[in-house]
């Protein structure tokens, strides 16, 4: 049976057609050479991410969560295995991916607006043409009033909002986020979770976010990938069937709590 026929049957039955694959990770292993020998960070790691999907990744410290994100971004190669993004094997940094790191990494001598426009300059795109888009993103993130200020004049949460705008300014098709709110206090982190969800609802970028927070992982995701200890591999994929948009109060619902308990158990944490 052809793909067209399958899609037609899905439409007749009322089922949504499958979304295209954006990220395909297949049999990825990553080893490092150290003074004490070889360390295996990732082993036989495989998963797919669909177009427009928001996927979060949780796992113990040192299991290779950040490593796989860097491999997807093309910032480092796998030792074995393959990673495809939009059907192309990843061999170098990709212009169609935006990256948000654990710290904002803003240049302190540049204004907020100039920091957001940095990828435009690196890619050799016309700056003037992208200023309106940068200002629109800053407004969407609620920091447009600070466009002319330096990063040191902003709080940590506001700096991370600017970093998200910088990752989106060249309109990437894929957004990769490495523990972006880990350094924030609990209240600021909750606020940033809501803000990120609002921005994602507006832009619908395919997103992969690394986090140590199970609550954050559930609150943001369509699906949670749970990784085991080093060498890291995916031990479970947990779908998050909760309605969007999500209010922070959803964390107190039985459905959210069940997901939290399930993921804790997958990570080897049992409740008394």
From TrEMBL:
GO molecular function: ATP binding
Keywords, alphabetical: ATP-binding, Cell membrane, Membrane, Nucleotide-binding, Transport
Record-linked SUPFAM superfamilies: P-loop containing nucleoside triphosphate hydrolases
ABC transporter domain span: 23-254
Family as reported in the entry's similarity comment: Belongs to the ABC transporter superfamily.
Name of the protein this chain belongs to: ABC transporter ATP-binding protein
UniProt source species: Pigmentiphaga soli
